[in-house]
Specification:
The protein is an alpha+beta fold. It is built from ten helices and 19 strands. Helix 4 packs across helix 7 and helix 5 crosses helix 7. It binds N-oxalylglycine and nickel (II) ion.
């Protein structure tokens, strides 16, 4: 049994925007309402709003990468012409417990709300997801230890390419447009084969358990998303052969930054190349998601994961659900870390739109593309918003003919 949640409703009292230098007023954190507007979570969430504002830091007072790695050219400044403001600015919230245990009518409403979250945002938070907090903390802490290992212990993974199963790096490109992105990352392929470095010793166990739990959650969300498209719950799963899905864990580390612009860009605007991504952070905000031409700062509810629709979602849904354009900014004195778990079809799956989702008389928006080819394409080009998707997009002439 599945059910979901609910759009979030924003109280109208204005708060000063927490973004440095922003004079705008912004709504407080969203609350979660049931369809009758009474919320089992509302009181709890509102009483937690102070905690939300304070963040839920795991406290990493020392920068694990304060070793000169970032002494290159200056980080890219966030363009000042973009409105960046807001707590969560109405980011939808999905209650996973309601999704799986709710009564039929709650579920039906929840599926509709989930569909709206995917259609309007391609981005939402999931709460009551069942992934233990101590497991999340353990995986974050272990990855922090990994970043802190001496260079020689990491050297063999530093040269790895995008299709290598374990990779450590600094920036998407070390230098893009003469500037360096303010991010270190560590990626490992964890399914169907599990790969990880030998150190830290506990990484294997912790990451294995975390990978299983987050994979189950993401696959379960995939069935609900299928329903929200008006399809059988197994349709999207089958269409992408998620039985044999491919999964990557990534840890991102954004060192403290106090450059000339005060705020630096950690990761440029992009969409994720996979199907569905789950992300949580160490209590330091910095993830921004684009909506209606504005960058919205994503501030999580306590314990929540962010869920991000990737490019394979856009392809399989024939463009009904768009992949989310997002970026990471850094700023201030605290290091930021995020843990990312992404599922995709297997590397050999040819991903194409579910034919039932063709718009009347308009054919399909995307042609089939092997996921491996898509991933290689996206990873070997400069990250440029959602430009990678064009490789699979059916180009139409003005007369409607396909190219
Ligand atoms: C990513 C990503 C954002 C963040 O790793 O693809 O978008 O907040 N990360 O670290
Ligand atoms: Ni991303």
């Amino acid at each position: 049994m599945y059910h979901v949640a609910l759009p979030c409703h924003v109280r109208r009292t204005a708060y000063p925007c927490p973004s440095p230098g922003c004079a705008k007023q912004t709504p407080p954190p969203a609350a979660v309402l049931n369809s009758d507007n009474s919320s089992p979570l509302q009181n709890r969430l509102l009483s937690l709003s102070c905690t939300i504002m304070a963040g839920t830091s795991l406290h990493h007072p020392t920068d694990p990468c304060a070793n000169g790695e970032h002494s290159g050219p200056a980080a890219v400044a966030v363009p000042s012409d973009v409105g960046t403001c807001g707590w969560d600015a109405g980011i939808p919230v999905v209650d996973y417990d309601v999704l799986v245990n709710g009564a039929a009518d709650q579920r039906a409403q929840a599926i509709r709300d989930l569909g709206r979250a995917c259609e309007d945002w391609g981005f939402f938070m999931v709460i009551n997801h069942g992934v233990p907090e101590d497991l999340k903390e353990a995986v974050m802490e272990t990855c922090r230890e990994l970043f802190s290992l001496p260079e020689e212990e990491k050297a063999e993974y530093l040269e790895a390419g995008p299709m290598d199963p374990v990779r450590i790096g600094s920036g998407f490109y070390s230098v893009v447009d003469g500037a360096r992105y303010w991010r270190d990352y560590f990626k490992m392929f964890v399914h169907p084969e599990f790969h990880c470095p030998a150190k830290p010793a506990k990484l294997r166990d912790v990451a294995t358990e975390y990978a299983v739990k987050t994979r189950d959650l993401l696959l379960s969300l995939a069935t609900a998303i299928s329903e929200s498209l008006g399809l059988d719950r197994g349709r999207v799963y089958e269409a992408m052969d998620l039985e044999s899905c491919f999964q990557i864990l990534t840890a991102n580390h954004y060192p403290p930054y106090a450059g000339p612009d005060d705020v630096g860009l950690g990761l440029p605007p992009h969409s994720d190349h996979g199907f569905l991504t789950l992300l949580f952070q160490n209590g330091v905000d910095g993830l921004q998601v684009e909506r209606d031409g504005q960058w919205v700062l994503a501030t999580p509810l306590p314990g929540a994961f962010f869920v991000i629709a990737g490019d394979q979602m856009e392809i399989v849904s024939n463009g009904r659900y768009k992949s989310s354009l997002h970026r990471a900014v850094v700023g201030g004195e605290r290091a930021r870390m995020s843990m990312v778990s992404m599922i995709s079809p297997s590397l050999d799956t040819v991903v194409e739109p579910v034919p039932e989702l063709a718009q009347d008389g308009q054919g399909l928006e995307f042609r089939g593309i092997r996921y491996r080819d898509y991933m290689e394409h996206q990873q070997s080009n400069k990250l440029n918003g959602k430009a990678a998707l064009d490789i699979a997009r059916v180009q139409r002439t003005v007369s409607g003919a396909e190219n």
